[in-house]
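Hi Y.,

Following your request, here is the sequence exactly as I used it, all 762 residues.
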Amino acid sequence: MSNRKVQIVPPEEFSNLKLTERKEKAAGIPALISSMQHISEELGIWQGIKVLNKMNQKDGFDCPGCAWPDPDGKRSSLGEYCENGVKAIAEEATTKKVTPEFFKKHSVEELSKWTDYAIGKAGRITEPMYLKENSSYYEPISWEKAFELIGNKLNSLSTPDEAVFYTSGRTSNEAAYMYQLFVRQLGTNNLPDCSNMCHESSGTALSETLGIGKGSVTLEDLHIAEVIVVMGQNPGTNHPRMLSALEKCKENGGKIITINPIPEAGNNVFVDPQNPLSIIKGGEKINDVYLQVKINGDIALLKAVLYLMLEAETNHPGKVFDLDFINNHCVNYDEFITDIKNTDFNKAVAESGISEAEIRAFAELLIEKKKIIVCWAMGLTQHKNAVNTIREVVNLLLVKGSIGKPGAGTCPVRGHSNVQGDRTMGIWEKPNPEFLNKLEEHFSINCPKEDGYDAVEAIKAMHENKVRVFMAMGGNFISATPDSEYTGKAMQNCDLTIQVSTKLNRSHLVTGKEALILPCISRSETDIQASGKQFITVENSMGIVHKSKGSFEPASPHLQSEHAIIAGIANATFKNSPINWTAMKEDYNVIRNHIAATISGFENFNEKVQQPSGFYLPNGARERNFNLPDKKAKFTINPLVENKVAKGNFIMMTIRTHDQYNTTIYGMDDRYRGILNERRVILMNKSDIEESNLQAEQIVHLTSFFNGEERVAHNFKIVPYNIAKGCVATYFPETNVLVPIDSVADKSNTPVSKFIEVAISR
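Below is the corresponding structure, written out as tokens. Let me know if you'd prefer a different format.
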């Protein structure tokens, strides 16, 4: 284990909490002001405008933030981006630099005592850096020596399974393909990725029921839907451009139902900052109905609604359910109906936390409509019963025939900009045997057939000294994962940790005995290789693959592309490889030709991607061609969950601030929620505060409980908030330390970050 005295968790000191009124509206003029402030601080107004004019344009680069799709047709001339997209590119294109002089001045022990916000604000890393064993200071290292060090270490392993290769959602399709190919030639499937911690539950549930682990809708479907149900999601902060789609749905007569333990500004009123009329009239009301569900009360709500819908169908056969679709395209319907009939309606109502009258009104709305879309995010996926909850979402859509027709379907809203594309490219610890066979045939290599480690399994393996090398292609693994102290110690058990990064984060400080930082160019920067200027591709939330091409000077002449880094490591590891890694590095068309030969839907890749808006990948559910043994969608049985905690304890969920995207913290404010200049807060229902004899802004400590184990996080200030009774919310990564490593979702193994039993003490 590394003997450095680094701090694994963020410091427990307070900033200076200021509380304001919770905002009822999202975007608008405040979003414009915030955007310009971030641009000005990081790269200057004029350079910022140049960069923004290229973001999400057909001849530009893809936003490094979320995976929300761009319009197929005309893009906004004012800018096809949102406030948080501006923050993301401001962070990426910043003029601030982390140079060798910076590392000479600051030890990893010192830097680990900084907040995650301060660490991230240090700037772009300019050169490859090496942390020697028993040293606390990174030193410059040449690319050649860095690759040699990695190759020697990998070749010294007793088995390739002693190495783990993590992938973030910002890696391009081309780089992800090269990365998985390298790992499989090495001889392991240890390819965990950020999906393991977010939408793995979605992929599992959708694959079981519809035969594809992706959503089935297009952007146009959202515009013409009769009802959109938004569950466990905060689009105003995490996917702001989605608000424009919801607004169009409303303009076309659609209804929006929001189900969430906390009311969010973005689910209430949207003020389009590009529309003067919207600004003048105060925006568009988004919500038609808001249902304040208890944390993990979603499956109870769904079963109660389905119970009422079945009652209506029984009284009016064929008027509520789409029996033609069910008979022709579904299996297990009778078993599902029996389960719904046997539902304890009163118990389901109680477990949901929503009144019976509100549930009946929700059900009536669904009874009357035929084109329904359900959108969801982490509020559904990070529970023990997450897969079952999402399967129940599918059940609701199936009874209405709302799969595979315009204006209807599933919409799991992805986070990172290419997290879906990475999985499509083969970044998965449980690869499809057919895909492995194609790799073997095409490249004349032998691929491992045994499943590898997912994110949680990788952490446990590192903790048990079964892994000696950890490599991350982007991301901030330490801050993204559960059980911070456990994970940090696991990382410190490794011999070598490698981070391919643009900016400094906590994962560069909590390392193995030796550590490397390999800095890469960003999305917005020009990538010139031996064959000329390159472009990459990404896949958005709706399965569209499109080009992304940077056009700005790299932050440093010493940076390499992800592709060049992978090729360099591969050439240093394999002395006689049948794969021409250099050719792929020099010309990304070569990579795309390999993808075309081995991944279905990418035939003629280099030709199809020249379409200005990209191309859609095949989607069986969208066509009612379900890739399941009987070619039919599957109804499932999903038990009602009874959420219990000890008397006096609460159910805690971790959430993001408005000035945060995933693990990147852009600022210290949560503007929409009225919480400024502080992250160590706990949001509590006012009645719960009074009944617990606590006070607003009182300093408390949190203890989580799981399987007889306790974990503690100190120093949080109470913020009274409109949150479901018995529930509390805190920000991550500050409370990741409370999430047990063994608390995972059934089947998907996703960490349960949205349901942690906690006690609050003075």
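Residues 15 and 556 are 33 Å apart (CA to CA).

Thanks again,
Q.
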